[in-house]
Design brief:
RNA Polymerase Alpha Subunit, Chain A, domain 2; 300 residues; rod-shaped; 21 strands; five-stranded mixed β-sheet; six-stranded mixed β-sheet
């Protein structure tokens, strides 16, 4: 029996075509990811939560078509033009999925999008410092912000509850007198923006002083001629001084507070001299009353 190569070749080709036809028409299931795009959100509104970046779609299609589906990227536009403040439930419709004819959509996960929508509001809030530790002893701390207040904007439910922006200040050397200046990003809740988003912070540490008044006799020093007697008018002056709190209570008896009027080379007669004051460490002079006295040099 002769082998008929021509007939054999035709039969083989027909078998291959039939096999591809049968296998290509067989339907299989697969899972596809579809990117979610949102559009049409009304001006003055913000989505607080619920946005999903993609949905998973289970489809059934012929094997040949399924191969082309898995090699493409798909996106779904969700219209937000009709959302309202509060909870919104938006269905993901199968009719709007971007698949060709012949693709059967079996399941969409999630099939509904739950959006929490809020209106946007803004207000001006002050900045307040929260310092980790207080300076010791007679030291006092002051914190200044530049700017002292900022405008915040975001979901109304968050903005309406805010009364200030609390900025944490950490002092590495709370006993170091002087000024420290730095820039700090403002701590804000998620979804809240500030303008400007940062502030310059100046931390000043100085001695905490209390103003007190004491009276002292004016000590007249000189003249160099021992035969001349100085007589001052008035003999006592009032001294107003800012003292560390630990010393203020004992200011009246503090011997480190003294008043002087000093001669240099003045001769006999009356002279007007400024009153000079010596103070203990940490104290600052506010005023002397009177600031000048009259001193008369008389012969003994």
């Amino acid at each position: 029996m002769k082998l008929r190569w021509k007939e054999f070749t035709v039969a083989l080709l027909m078998a291959i075509v039939l096999w591809y036809g049968v296998s290509g028409s067989e339907k299989l299931e697969s899972h596809l990811e579809v990117r979610m795009d949102y559009r049409g959100l009304p001006q003055g509104m913000v989505v607080r939560s619920g946005l999903v970046s993609k949905v998973c779609v289970r489809v059934r299609a012929p094997v040949g078509m399924l191969r082309t589906l898995t090699n493409r990227e798909y996106a779904f536009d969700l219209d937000l033009s009709h959302v309202h403040k509060g909870q919104n439930i938006l269905p993901v419709s199968m009719a709007h999925l971007p698949f060709r004819v012949g693709v059967e959509v079996i399941e969409i996960s999630p099939s509904r999008i739950f959006l929490d929508v809020d209106t946007i509001s803004s207000r001006i809030l002050p900045l307040e410092a929260q310092v980790n530790t207080a300076p010791p002893g007679d030291l006092a701390l002051r914190v200044a912000f530049n700017p002292p207040e900022v405008r915040v904007s975001g979901p109304s439910s968050l903005v309406d509850e805010m009364t200030m922006i609390e900025v944490q200040i950490v002092l590495e050397k709370p006993d170091q007198i002087g000024d420290i200046t730095f820039t700090r990003m403002l701590p804000l809740p998620h979804g809240i923006d500030a303008s400007p988003p940062e502030a310059k912070v100046t931390v000043s540490i100085d001695i905490n002083r209390t103003p007190v008044k004491v009276t002292r006799n004016v000590q007249v020093t000189g003249p160099p001629d021992k035969s001349i007697q100085p007589v001052s008018q008035p003999e006592r002056v009032s001294i107003e001084v800012a003292m560390p709190e630990s010393l203020a209570a004992r200011a009246a008896s503090n011997k480190d507070i003294q008043a002087f009027a000093r001669f240099t080379d003045q001769g006999p007669g009356s002279h007007t001299l400024p009153v000079q004051v010596e103070l203990p460490a940490g104290a600052e002079l506010i005023a002397v009353d009177p600031p000048r006295i009259t001193v008369t040099l008389e012969q003994k």
